[in-house]
Amino acid sequence: MKHLIYAGSLIILLILACNDLVWGQPFKNLVEITPQFTLKSFLWGEYNDNSVQLLEEKGLLYSGGITSKIKFSRSFDLFTKFDAHYYSGLIDYDGFLQNPDGTTEPYKSKTGYEGLEAILNFGYDIYAADQFIIAPELGFQYEYWNRDIDNGGQYGYDEVYNLLFIDFGCNFIYQFSRPAKIFLNILGEYPLLITESIDLASRGQGGPADINLEPQSNIGLNIELGATTYGAFLSFYLDYLLFSKSAFDQGYHQPESDRTVVGMKLGYTFSIN
Length: 273
Hints:
- It is a single chain.
- The two termini are about 35 Å apart.
- It is elongated and about 70 Å long.
- It has one helix at about 1-15, and strands spanning about 30-45, 55-70, 80-100, 105-125, 125, 130-150, 155-175, 180-200, 210-215, 220-230, 230-245, 255-270, 270.
- It has one domain (about 1-270): OPCA outer membrane adhesin/invasin (Lipocalin, Beta Barrel), CATH 2.40.128.
- By secondary structure, the chain is mainly β.
């Protein structure tokens, strides 16, 4: 992943160095639609009440989807952003098995992930200078994922998460010319709703089939840095979420957990002026 970041940073610098600066009136696109592929370096951790790590999952996930920015008119700089992405992958599981007597032993396996993400945000472009834009943004984000622990094996089970967030933050854009710009997006993510459902009966373990948990909310963070030139799109981002311990249901609970994603997006932007 480090090599990807170094290579991508070099590409951004080369792209910008090859563009002629154009000064004058601000460049405005009415519609921008970007199909894109995303490579995610994914890390999931769970911790006991003493903040000692119980398990770790890490690996690469692969995502495809579309992101868009649509302005309401050429004379009014209010815009809406809509994103929709699907992701999946198989990552390493490093955790434990719980024996019938309550003791545990180390266990390594695989975890399958499959999920959907959708964002509907609204913002306003403030032209601080001809080429520099500050764009505050507010809206909603929904995410679903299925966490298949042990990848269908006899010791695992499925966890299904549904999350609804409020997104809030700001975008900073520097427009070199109509086809070339760099941007920095900083967004907070506050979960309004987190639900987790677990089925322990489907693989013959004898546990409940309808465990329903609600991990507690914390503000998450998403930071993205990228560039576009003549339609080519490249960005890198960090997304971090922390889930506090849930209440118990039928003797089970979700311990404190966190998720860290470092990703690279590649795409092509279609624009309407």
